[in-house]
Amino acid sequence: MWLSETVFGPTITLSTGRVIPTRWVGEQHVREDLGFIPSFADWVKAIRPEPWMGRSERIEASVDPHLASTVVEVS
User: Fold this and answer.
1) Which residue of 45, 61, 66, 73 is most buried, as measured by CB atoms within 10 A?
2) Beta bridge partners of 11
3) Residue with the larger pLDDT of the pair 58 and 6
4) Which residues are paired to 21 by β-bridges?
5) Predicted confidence (pLDDT) per residue in 27-72, tens digit
6) Among 33, 31, 13, 11, residue whose Cα is nearest residue 22
7) Residue 13, φ and ψ in degrees, nearest 5
8) Is the separation of the CB atoms in 30 and 23 below 8 Å?
9) What is the DSSP string of the chain?
């Protein structure tokens, strides 16, 4: 819903002049497709972990060398 509000603005004006919230339009589309508005918990439960998701490394040094010196590794 956030993206639709960002792209189209907080409201949409219909050809009749009626102003409706963009969020309402987005929610109606989701309800039509899924039958409900999923919560964050519903969304997270649907994520299937993949091996690449666990491979990460710290990027502080490449992003900001000043921040890298304050990072303390805890083992």
Assistant:
1) 61
2) 21
3) 6
4) 11
5) 999 999 999 999 999 989 999 989 988 888 777 777 776 765 555 6
6) 11
7) -100, 120
8) no
9) -HHHHHHH-SEEE-TTS-EEEHHHHHHHHHHHHHSS---HHHHHHT----GGGG-----HHHH-HHHHTT-----
- Spatial contact of 31 and 44, defined as CB atoms under 8 Å apart: no
Query: Which tokens sit at 3?
Result: 């993206």
Side chain identity at residue 3, one-letter code = L
Half-sphere CA count of 14, side-chain side, radius 13 A: 6
**Residue 38 contacts by C-beta under 8 Å, 6 or more apart in sequence?**
30, 46
